[in-house]
Hints:
α8 links the parallel β7 and β8. This protein folds into 2 domains: 88 residues, Arc Repressor Mutant, subunit A; 301 residues, Alpha-Beta Horseshoe (pyruvate-formate lyase- activating enzyme). It is globular, with a radius of gyration of 21 Å. The chain is of the alpha/beta class. It is 38% helix and 21% strand. The protein has 16 helices and 19 strands.
Amino acid sequence: MTKSLLAKYNIAAPRYTSYPTVPNWQIPGPGQEEWLLEVKKTYQEQGIINLYIHLPYCEQLCTYCGCNKRITKNHAVERPYIESVLKEWAMYVAALGEKSVIRELHLGGGTPTFFSPENLSFLVEGILHQAKLAPDHSFSFEAHPNSTTYEHLRTLRSSGFNRISIGVQDFGQDIMLLINRKQTTAEIYRVVEQSRELGYESINFDLIFGLPRQKIDHILTNIEHLQKLRPERIAFYSYAHVPWKSPSQRAYDETDLPRGDQKRELYETGKRFLEEMGYEEIGFDHFALPQDELLIASKAKRLHRNFMGYTPHDTRLNLALGVSAIGDSWGAYVQNEKKIEPYRERVENGELPLIKGYLLTKDEQIIRRHILNIMCKESTCWLNPEVQCADLFAGLERLKEMEADGLLQIDGHCLKVLPAGRPFLRNICLAFDQHYWKHEVGAGRFSEVV
């Protein structure tokens, strides 16, 4: 990547885990009845769901984090929160009128392992009691090495979990101290060793580039540990500096943040060594070993992307439980209450705790598909009139300059991202985002692309 291209295209833009993006959603959005109609319609089409459960509690604030969380050491909050989640789930079960078939179940946060193994077992058993499992089902959870015990791993494995995502971020203790994340290298090794001993099939590491005071030496140290541990997947994320959204990110001096070509060099260094180790890049910011199903799906052009990241399955109905959780029926999005007290109060009153959302028009669904194609397959085509609309052609017009810069190629009715364009996937998708161009928003709302 040349410095001139980086300077030109390193702008603030969405990550496109959805289209339209969350800032364009409406308050209050679809009502409960309208949302449940969308849920039932999509379920009837595919007969399968993904389920995400947000567990928001953490004992300590990691200052880099942009997730919705509640900091507390009071573990008496666990069971009441879980009971509310199960009541929310029961509303969906009643609406669907049958035990729905679950393909993927993911516990996110917050810190899921803030909750005791007993309470996590109570939660999962309560979910599965009112569900069936798809033959190719997969259960995963996010693990903080500091709070993930052997009993957590054993309990969740016995409940059917086969994937674990470990929040490593960086192995450098100096950086961990700066961002207030208490975990040791020994704890990371322990969690990996115990997970493999218990039969977890896939281990993912979350690593971040662009953290405050992070240098090439940190990336090289990370690579040394990866050579020893060899997780099946690596999510190598760009640090998203959004202090207007996450005030805790003001805990360190912004001059400590690597920016521009300095930040990109961190990624390119990591990428080079990962590829030498046998990992292959997927989409953007993701890597996997050849035997991992994510890479297999990518090569077969079956890769999909949702709010949980890249996935091997294009599951249209993604239900989400818990505070701030986001549901997706393909034709609609909804988000739950962001604060725990109103979330629990509304659930206890027998209503889904929806606060915002969006119903997609036909044209928006067309653009959503093209954006997903670009993010997952690095190409998209529009020969069929059913996947054409005015927004598509307006976006293609905006891409002429990027085509001239050698980032993509438009040939007839197909667009293909070229190798030089991979770091700028978000920019390419941005060209089709009519909401962005209508309101001309970016800085102060989204993080930088690189």
